């Protein structure tokens, strides 16, 4: 069941990467900051959840 959560986190992280590229194009630094924070947070939690599921703990 946690693997579904990890996939959802990964999808949000990938969508925020698209937002980073878009905000760099528009030079919107405030939104770029939030996009970077979102990518790092959701990316970390998705990878951590996937590793946790693979290792079985």
Automatic annotation (TrEMBL):
Keywords: Membrane, Transmembrane, Transmembrane helix. InterPro entries: DUF2759. The keyword Transmembrane helix applies. The chain crosses the membrane at residues 29-51. This is Membrane protein. It comes from Virgibacillus natechei.
